[in-house]
Structure of N-(5'-phosphoribosyl)anthranilate isomerase:
Amino acid sequence: MLHPPPSASSSPSSAALPAGAATRTRIKICGLTREQDVDAAVAAGADAVGFVLYAKSPRAVTPRRAAELARRLPPFVTPVLLFVNESTANVMAACADIPTATVQFHGDETPEDCRAAADAGRRPYLRAARIPLGAEAPAFDLVQFAHQYSHAQAILLDAHVEGYGGGGKAFNWSLLPPSVGSHLVLSGGLTPANVTDGILQVRPRGLSLAVDVSSGVEADGPDGKPLRGIKDAGKIQRFIAAVRAADGHFAEND
């Protein structure tokens, strides 16, 4: 189970937002490998797209390929580069070819590692928190984790699965602390069918909420399983519509 939160502490990422400013949920479509999927995400209204630069992932692309795909993006759609325990030099080299990129750290990177690889804090970065699955899992103090990574633009919440990177599994959102002094990104097992509920449960717990989806918008193979790295434009559209439905709920109750 997750530890109950201590009192919230202030940090550079925890400035309060004006009333109503966090109503719109930002959306990232991750694990993109094809031009048509980048175009579909943009056309559907995604705020960010993610490229996995972790060779062991089935959705991995090379830095050169990520740069090619990122060049298709219009203004105000953010490319996000996902790394797992990568060297500072390699992170900075990949970012040099995509100047507008945000970095996502999904391994065992320390706060010092993150700041160094994010160009001494000059480039925004997300830090993934691997949330335990099941009541018997080791305790995890999300509030303390967020405090340790207070320079991150947001803390990304994903299920703790074997290996690294997204595992496509949802964790128990109700076990999250009621108040985390950071902007949050909900990830892990999201689909068009459950993202509305996820937003309703998690948004009140952070300064703001974004969502991050990969396997939940992938095309189905002949065996009914997702084709990793191949997105379904219709699923992307339904996912974004479900996010906006949650936003509508909060707007009505502001």
Summary: The mean pLDDT is 89.
